[in-house]
């Protein structure tokens, strides 16, 4: 049924919108931007911050435009002296309960509150008084929670509940004691937080940020006894440029390699190499499960937030998840074994860093399973944001860099690897290889268009030598919960499921560059541009199937012997265990959104 | 697959176990009558009624039975003043800090109670016997300073009289046992 349209006037300009639109949406549609703070187009609206107030004829007070629906003949004013002053007062009140330390703040020049204060013309602190004070929670490997900087907009609570279905955070207590945090006021490390970092992307201030890895990296880079080796994840290369004024999706792979060498890294490897390796191992694991009656559907295992979610909320599916480590951890294990031996370096002297679009990778590398080289395989994970910061701190002019080159023997990759960074990519890469390995025939086309796109849940049927293989691709953990529930109920049947924790896959990872300008996290245009960047890298590669990567052939010949072999098992595979953080009922599977 | 959680604290006292049993039955009945959010409010009232406060174990049970995340239950339990996350004491001592009592030395009474019980304002003694709070004007300013223990009011006090009052309730408690 078509929705009824209503006519209204905003600042004297006529607008025609559907009857269920809000005043804010109507204003957006005719090019009027109402200032906002707690609103996000992908999340429910709560009208908490009151920054978006407007004047409406007939209304007694100033309604919040994000939660007020339009009606026929409505007359809205968004820019009167009274409204401007009301908004300024609201932001002044928020500022006066906020630390005045912008210059030394993580989000300086990247802060919605700071920008709003400037835009609205706040010129002085009017209501100086007592400020709230809470201790900083830096217990988590990934996320630091500094409640003093929190303005209680609740976007983190909503993204955690509505997009991720994790519900780690809530707003507790009232008045000056109001705070955002996990249940029972426990530390983040003990909570159900799965470390995805989506909260850091939507937080308008620096109340939620990633845990710093820069200091330790710089310390090791200047230590002459250490050999610093670095790897770069696929999704980083199409986003890092945004921090230096380039359009989203611009491929900055080789400039990044050059910058990393200038920073002092002796060896630069490409996580895309181990993405190809993951496809070989995971592809063979899938074929084995499919042909020998193993546990199906098989789930991918590259997304560490998903792994922690699985262990915490859905341990009944642990045996369904691939035993393959993520590409980062495969590379980590190989650097301190295969490469150390080949290059004659004592693995104890290697300091292994990965550049990831992800905050959960910081947690993954610290997991006790990830020590198959005899050391912690990856020492420090830096997010895309942290890398951009290091480049700036080192005074490197990113836009003037000449392209660098990765180091052999783990620097070359096929077109199947870059697309790991976008939802559907791992599936497509796996299908390219699985099809050819099973059928021993060449694929008519390497492009599996059905599995592409940013939709939350996608399905496809692939004909492999007469066998119909049902696959699904899912991103965002609330979607994962839905899919798993329906698999349990028997409503959905698959052979192979790709799971990505973050909306859009790694291109929308919690460690990516904060969206610049008017863009916001989870913006479809932003994520489409980043994903187009990755598909372009794929198309421009001469070899687009993982099993045709000559370096992969070489590493099996020289070191690993065969897929799923003894050494693979030791270095490239692992097992997961049901976890139960304190305060989480064991049978809590439902993740409804309350409040 | 064994999903038994070993992290949640074990329930030791029989009293608590009986309470949890009662709670579970209550939830079973009321789950059908409300949507989840409506049921939560009713159920938390019941928790407060059974235990006199909202213990964490009870919140875990509520979360599990209603399918509401613990974070949201915690948010609700800390928002409303009616709910208390700390056990209430058997004898709640309220020291009056209304104007008249304050001028007559109410603050010194408070200090003395804190000293005697070795607890701070808002806390409960480890044995659960005494709790300490302040109140504003009980309407007997002519008899200031006063303190109230549960329903009983003690008037025209000096700090030296505090130990005897506490002793009275300790004795009363021994007798009932």
Description:
The complex is a heterodimer of chains A (595) and B (177). With 595 residues, chain A is an alpha/beta fold. Chain A has 3 domains: 5-79, Ubiquitin-like (UB roll) (Roll), CATH 3.10.20.740; 94-210, Alpha-Beta Plaits; 214-572, 3-Layer(aba) Sandwich (Rossmann fold), CATH 3.40.50. Chain A has helices at residues 23-29, 81-96, 112-119, 155-163, 198-202, 214-221, 253-263, 271-292, 304-313, 327-343, 360-365, 384-393, 425-439, 477-488, 524-540, 550-560, 566-572, and strands spanning 5-10, 13-18, 55-56, 74-77, 143-145, 170-172, 179-181, 208-210, 227-232, 267-270, 298-299, 350-356, 380-383, 457-464, 467-475, 496-500. In chain A, strands 2-1-4-3 form a 4-stranded mixed β-sheet, with helices on one face. In chain A, strands 10-9-12-13 form a 4-stranded parallel β-sheet, sandwiched between helices. A 4-stranded mixed β-sheet of chain A has the order 11-16-15-14, with helices on both faces. Residues 585-595 of chain A have low confidence and may be disordered. Chain B is an alpha+beta fold. Chain B folds into 2 domains: 14-79; 91-176, 3-Layer(aba) Sandwich (Glutaredoxin), CATH 3.40.30. In chain B, 49% of the residues lie in helices and 10% in strands. Chain B has helices at 14-31, 36-51, 56-66, 70-79, 99-103, 106-117, 162-176, and strands at residues 91-96, 130-135, 147-149, 152-154. A 4-stranded mixed β-sheet of chain B has the order 2-1-3-4, with helices on one face. In chain B, β3 (147-149) and β4 form a beta hairpin. The model of chain B is unreliable at 1-11 (pLDDT under 50). Chain A binds chain B through residues 161, 167-174, 182-185, 191-192, 315-316, 318, 578, 580-592, 594-595, and chain B through 1-8, 36-37, 40, 56, 59-61, 63-64, 67-76, 78-79.
Name the features.
heterodimer, A: 595 residues, alpha/beta, Alpha-Beta Plaits, four-stranded parallel β-sheet, 17 helices, globular, B: alpha+beta, Glutaredoxin, 49% helix, elongated
């Amino acid at each position: 049924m078509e929705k009824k349209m209503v006519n209204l006037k905003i600042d004297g300009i006529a607008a025609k919108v559907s009857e269920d639109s809000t005043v804010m949406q109507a204003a957006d549609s005719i090019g009027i931007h109402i200032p906002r703070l707690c609103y996000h187009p992908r999340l429910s609206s709560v009208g908490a911050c009151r920054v978006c107030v407007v004047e409406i004829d007939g209304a007694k007070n100033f309604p919040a435009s994000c939660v007020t629906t339009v009606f026929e003949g409505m007359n809205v004013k968004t820019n009167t002296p009274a409204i401007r002053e009301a908004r300024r007062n609201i932001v002044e009140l928020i500022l006066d309960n906020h630390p005045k330390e912008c210059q030394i703040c993580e989000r300086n020049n990247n802060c919605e509150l700071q920008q709003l204060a400037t835009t609205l013309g706040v010129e002085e602190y009017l209501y100086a008084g007592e400020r709230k004070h809470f201790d900083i929670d830096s217990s988590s490997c990934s996320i630091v929670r500094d409640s003093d900087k929190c303005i209680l907009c609740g976007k983190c609570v909503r993204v955690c509940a509505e997009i991720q279905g994790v519900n780690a955070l809530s707003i507790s207590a009232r008045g000056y004691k109001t705070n955002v945090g996990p249940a029972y006021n426990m530390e983040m490390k003990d909570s159900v937080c799965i470390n995805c970092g989506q909260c850091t992307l939507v937080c308008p201030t620096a109340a939620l940020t990633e845990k710093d890895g820069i200091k330790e990296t710089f310390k090791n880079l200047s230590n002459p006894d250490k050999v610093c080796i670095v790897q770069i994840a696929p999704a980083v290369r199409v986003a890092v440029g945004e921090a230096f004024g380039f359009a989203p999706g611009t491929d900055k792979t080789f400039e990044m390699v050059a910058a990393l060498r200038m920073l002092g890294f002796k060896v630069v490897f490409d996580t895309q190499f181990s993405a190809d390796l993951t496809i070989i191992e995971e592809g063979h694991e899938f074929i084995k499960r499919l042909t020998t009656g193993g546990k199906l559907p098989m789930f991918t295992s590259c997304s560490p937030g998903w792994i922690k979610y699985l262990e915490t909320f859905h341990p009944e599916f642990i045996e369904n998840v691939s035993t393959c480590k993520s590409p980062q951890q495969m590379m980590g294990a190989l650097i301190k074994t295969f490469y150390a031996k080949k290059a004659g370096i004592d693995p104890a002297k290697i300091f292994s860093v990965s550049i990831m679009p992800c905050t959960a990778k910081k947690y993954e590398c610290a997991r006790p399973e990830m020590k198959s080289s005899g050391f912690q395989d990856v020492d420090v994970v830096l997010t895309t944001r942290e890398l951009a910061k290091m480049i700036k701190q080192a005074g490197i002019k990113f836009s003037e860099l000449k392209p660098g080159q990765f180091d052999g023997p783990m620097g070359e990759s096929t077109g199947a690897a870059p697309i790991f960074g976008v939802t559907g990519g791992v599936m497509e890469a796996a299908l390219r290889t699985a099809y050819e390995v099973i059928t021993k025939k060449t694929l008519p086309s390497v492009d599996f268009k059905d599995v592409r796109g940013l939709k939350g849940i996608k399905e496809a049927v692939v004909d492999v030598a007469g066998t119909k293989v049902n696959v699904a691709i899912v991103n965002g953990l609330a979607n994962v919960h839905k899919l798993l529930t329906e698999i349990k109920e028997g409503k959905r049947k698959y052979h192979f499921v790709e799971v990505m924790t973050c909306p859009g896959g790694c291109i929308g990872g919690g460690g990516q560059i904060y969206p610049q300008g008017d863009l916001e996290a989870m913006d479809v245009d932003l994520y489409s541009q980043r994903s187009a960047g990755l598909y372009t890298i794929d198309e421009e590669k001469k070899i687009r199937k993982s099993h045709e990567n000559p370096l992969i052939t070489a590493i099996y010949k020289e070191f690993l012997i065969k897929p799923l072999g003894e050494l693979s098992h030791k270095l490239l595979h692992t097992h997961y265990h049901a976890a139960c953080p304190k305060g989480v009922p064991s049978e809590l599977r439902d993740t409804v959104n309350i409040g | 697959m064994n999903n038994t959680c070993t992290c949640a604290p074990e329930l030791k006292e029989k009293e608590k176990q009986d309470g949890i049993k009662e709670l579970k039955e209550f939830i079973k009945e009321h789950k059908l009558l409300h949507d989840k959010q409506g049921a939560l409010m009713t159920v938390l009232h019941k928790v407060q009624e059974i235990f006199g406060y909202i213990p964490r174990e009870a919140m875990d049970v509520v979360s599990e039975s209603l399918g509401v995340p613990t974070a949201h239950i915690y948010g609700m339990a800390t928002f409303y003043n009616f709910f208390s996350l700390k056990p209430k004491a058997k004898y709640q001592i309220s020291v009056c800090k209304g104007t008249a009592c304050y001028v007559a030395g109410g603050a010194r009474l408070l200090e003395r109670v804190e000293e005697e019980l070795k607890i701070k304002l808002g806390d409960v003694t480890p044995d659960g016997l005494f709790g300490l709070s302040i109140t504003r004007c009980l309407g007997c300013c002519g008899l200031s300073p006063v303190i109230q223990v549960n329903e009983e009011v003690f008037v025209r006090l000096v700090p030296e009289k505090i130990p005897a009052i506490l002793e009275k309730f300790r004795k009363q408690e021994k007798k009932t046992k």
